[in-house]
Design the sequence.
């Protein structure tokens, strides 16, 4: 699962004691394990090796440039959804030819920036967007490649807010319209339409929705081939699960066991496969470490108030997501052998773990059975590497936490803690910098 483990009642990341880490860098703090990050990337690469895929790590899941650099050094490309993410990919030293760019609302400046960078593929979300990118490329006298994001209308059985492959979502083009799209735009020379892109949702804890989507798309590709339209690239998107609880998600090998045979003929005929995993690489590689500020009782409820919350990890309130939470120092009887919503141990107390933000939605866990904790104890919020720091905000004028990387015994700061000056700098500069200016 990951390299966060208990030893004599104390939590370690790789060889670093997290109590000591917190004493050195303060709390709250995002802690990443280099070994976990790299292992999870390698598992995907190995599981799908028979298809020789281009693995484009989804920057939006966890975008620290130093972490992206570690993956780029292993050969990863990147999946970006904005000009800002493209900027991050560039700073991480990613080969621009290995960048794919999705997103329903690409602006003209973002498109120009991507064309100048020479990215691998634009993943096209609508007819209007295709026309716009083609016309900008023509005006710049450059040529780029595109894959059409097809909406296969399968139900990934995940949270409504992260379901993206059903007809009623804003993403992609209906599979029935895809056919006409290729007929109409397949001959555009400045934006060569040569692939199909899928991304059906996230996290998807079964393989079946992928199988359904791939079967639909392979039928479309076969149909197009009969009409003389070649589709040489198939991008499966991301969405593979992560173990928020022990053994919750299929492994990379489990996904591959069903997906690889389906795509073998396409690959054997010279087709290129792209994968865009984010969560499955980053989620278990990171955790959020926080300190208990106060304990209180309200009605029948016990609250543990900590120094982090929805402003640093919004998933519980936004997606009803489960994160395993446990003290970093526990009695031997309370060492968790696995991570589950309900733990079968004596002496646990049911509590809500909540943050300091002035919102009732500011919780990290509800009705959770935990070992007894006291003011000053550390709580570890596990599996927070993906959609954690990237979604953090400054709501209530809270500085965002630092990010640190653990590599064996070594601790490296990857992003410093924000200061109060960071919070107000754009406002101070707006006044001292003079007139209002359009940044576009
Ligand atoms: C978010 C996203 C991904 C990554 O999803 P994960 O669940 O993190 O693997 C991949 N592709 C696209 C287009 C996305 O929007």
Sequence:
């Amino acid at each position: 699962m990951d390299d966060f483990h208990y030893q004599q009642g104390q939590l370690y990341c790789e060889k670093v004691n997290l109590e000591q880490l917190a004493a050195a860098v303060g709390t709250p703090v995002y802690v990443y394990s280099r070994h976990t990050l790299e292992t999870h990337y390698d598992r995907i690469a190995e599981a799908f090796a028979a298809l020789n895929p281009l693995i484009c790590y989804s920057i939006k899941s966890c975008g620290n440039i130093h972490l992206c650099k570690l993956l780029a050094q292993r050969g990863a490309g990147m999946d970006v959804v904005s000009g800002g993410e493209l900027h991050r990919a560039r700073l991480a030293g990613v080969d621009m030819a290995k960048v794919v760019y999705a997103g329903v609302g690409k602006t003209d400046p973002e498109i120009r920036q991507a064309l100048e960078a020479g990215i691998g593929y634009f993943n096209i979300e609508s007819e209007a967007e295709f026309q716009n990118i083609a016309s900008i490329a023509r005006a710049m006298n450059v040529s780029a490649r595109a894959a059409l994001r097809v909406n296969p209308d399968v139900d990934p059985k995940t949270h409504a807010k992260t379901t993206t492959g059903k007809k009623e979502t804003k993403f992609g083009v209906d599979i029935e319209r895809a056919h006409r799209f290729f007929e109409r735009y397949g001959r555009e020379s400045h934006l060569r339409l040569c692939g199909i892109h899928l991304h059906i949702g996230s996290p998807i804890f079964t393989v079946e929705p992928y199988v359904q989507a791939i079967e639909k798309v392979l039928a479309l590709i076969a149909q197009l081939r009969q009409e003389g339209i070649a589709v040489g690239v198939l991008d499966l998107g991301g969405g593979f699960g992560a173990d928020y609880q022990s053994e919750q998600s299929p492994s990379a090998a489990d996904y591959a066991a069903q997906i690889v045979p389906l795509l073998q003929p396409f690959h054997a005929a010279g087709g290129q496969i792209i994968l865009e995993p984010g969560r499955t690489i980053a989620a278990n590689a990171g955790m959020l470490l926080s300190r208990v500020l106060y304990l209180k009782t309200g009605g029948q409820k016990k609250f543990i108030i900590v120094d982090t919350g929805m402003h640093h990890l919004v998933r519980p309130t936004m997606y009803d997501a489960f994160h395993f939470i446990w003290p970093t120092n526990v009695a031997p009887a309370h060492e968790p052998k696995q991570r589950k919503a309900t733990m079968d141990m004596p002496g646990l107390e049911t509590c809500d773990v909540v943050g300091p933000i002035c919102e009732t939605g500011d919780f990290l866990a509800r009705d959770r059975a935990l070992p007894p904790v006291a003011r000053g104890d550390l709580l570890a919020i596990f599996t927070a590497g993906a959609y954690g720091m990237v979604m953090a905000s400054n709501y209530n004028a809270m500085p965002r936490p630092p990010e640190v990387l653990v590599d064996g015994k070594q601790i490296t700061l990857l992003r410093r803690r924000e200061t109060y000056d960071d919070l107000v700098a754009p406002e101070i500069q707006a006044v001292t910098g003079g007139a209002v200016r359009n940044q576009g």
Observations:
- The longest strand covers residues 286-298.
